Amino acid sequence: MVPYNLQNWYDQDCGIKEPDPANSFEAKCAGCHNTGLELKKTDKGFESKYSELNTGCEKCHGAGSMHVNSPGKGNILNPRKLAFERGLEVCGQCHSRGTSVPKGLHDYPWDETANKPYQLGEPLSKYYTLKPGKWADSAGHSRQHHQQWVDFLRSKHFTGKIHCFDCHNAHGDPVLLSL
Fold first, then answer.
1. Residues of the chain under the 70 pLDDT cut
2. Burial letters for 9-47: b for 16+ Cβ neighbours within 10 Å, e otherwise?
């Protein structure tokens, strides 16, 4: 793991500092690092509540109450069964760089007007404006964190209609699956 945006969290003497509300975890990170996020704007920034710290099942498969009560493949959202681009956007909701709409208050997909997170199966563009990727090398890998989806949209994999999860295992080891 690599330290990320340390200037927002620590002062020059390595003491913890109160982040600017515009750069707080809630404003910039919580949308990808919490499942079931709820945000409330306050005079000090944002307060958050969530159903699960970090990425849980519902982040990619939607509400799971029916599945918990009666486990089965038919009562949970499978991103592969969504239209191709909607299925990719399930991965793109976190593996990208952008800002929420309409004002760009958050660095993750969020409908600021309705104060709601990205809903699986809906166009990601309703919640998010992408920042373009920055190519770093001849192999086409981005220099910045969280740009896999932007890179993917420019790739032959996208035009060939290959899903992220055709090669990557989202349920375990994030390296490529054996082909």
1. 1-4, 132-146, 173-179
2. eeeeeeeeeebeeeebebbbbbbbbbbebebeeeeebbe
